[in-house]
Design a protein that fits this description.
With about 250 residues, this protein is α+β, with helices and mostly antiparallel strands. It is built from 11 helices and 7 strands. The chain has 2 domains: about 100 residues, Beta-grasp domain (Ubiquitin-like (UB roll)); about 140 residues, Orthogonal Bundle (Fumarate Reductase Iron-sulfur Protein, Chain B, domain 2). The strands form 2 sheets. The protein has a 5-stranded mixed sheet. The longest helix has 18 residues. The structure holds iron/sulfur cluster (2 copies) and FE2/S2 (inorganic) cluster.
Length: about 250
């Protein structure tokens, strides 16, 4: 058993500072275990979110040595022995207490996205017919665990408070792509993608893709195809006319 030095940001909306703790670490531990050990030994009132400890609930995101990560999926053996580990709250969202931030911006955006609108069944037995490749394409987007690490690193949300009100962010480009590309969905959301979601503000830096713990190719598979659809439908008169006549294809 070795000891490790961990600097954890403690404070609230009024301000705070890093506090240093030294705790014993055993083989197989992850950063979330270390935070729990700090709670147990040194700071019972340390605030942090977690639920599953399995990389699936999306609630334990923080900045570990400056990198946005799920603390439950960050193994301690990736750090150099003797290295001091720094854990800070996600930088983009307002602080509530210690490592807990107010991520309600994301829920406000989510509320504004119209739900799935299914076409009627294809067969009398109530079933639908879909191509496997169409299913595979949207399945990638369904892996999102809503950790909001991508929203945290997106510079439009992080650095441009004024523009944030007209920008949904990468997590919701994934959601919009999932709906837009779903073979059964009849809704048309390209107007929403262009105006409310503000996809034109995304300059494809790929920072969101780099931090996604589910390895969703946010930029290549969601954002760029959505940008192409917006251009086709709002700036290409032939595609616009076909869509008016034939509906969503
Ligand atoms: S690629 Fe676009 S959505 Fe993703 S972080 Fe960069 S600006 Fe934000
Ligand atoms: S797209 Fe990836 S990084 Fe963004 S909220 Fe979903 S799982 Fe997290
Ligand atoms: S505790 Fe659920 S993703 Fe980390």
């Amino acid at each position: 058993m070795a000891d490790v030095t961990v600097r954890v940001w403690r404070g609230n909306a009024q301000g705070g500072a890093f506090h240093e703790y030294r705790v014993p670490v055993e083989e197989g531990m992850v950063v979330l275990d270390v935070l729990h050990r700090i709670q147990a030994i040194h700071a019972n009132d340390l605030a942090l979110r977690w639920n599953c400890k399995a990389g699936k609930c999306g609630s334990c995101g923080a900045e570990v040595n400056g990198h946005p990560r799920l603390t439950c999926m960050t193994r301690m053996n990736i750090f150099t022995p003797g290295e001091t580990i720094t854990v800070a709250p996600m930088k983009t969202f307002p602080i509530i207490k210690d490592l807990v931030t107010d991520v309600s911006f994301n829920f406000q955006v989510a509320k504004k996205i119209p739900a799935f609108q299914s076409r009627p069944p294809d067969a009398p037995d109530g079933s639908w017919r879909m191509m496997q490749e169409d299913i595979d394409r949207v399945q990638e987007f369904r892996k999102c665990i809503e950790c909001f690490l991508c929203q945290n690193v997106c510079h439009v949300i992080r650095d441009h408070e004024g523009k944030k009100q007209h920008f949904a962010g990468p997590r919701f480009f994934v959601r919009l792509a999932e709906l837009e590309m779903h073979p059964l969905d009849t809704g048309t959301r390209t107007g929403l993608v262009k105006e409310f979601a503000g996809i034109g503000l995304c300059n494809i830096t790929k920072c969101c893709t780099e931090v996604c713990p589910e390895h969703i190719r946010i930029t290549d598979n969601a954002i760029i195809p959505l940008k192409e659809r917006v251009v086709d439908e709002h700036y290409d008169p032939v595609v616009w006319l076909l869509r008016k006549v034939l509906g969503k294809r």
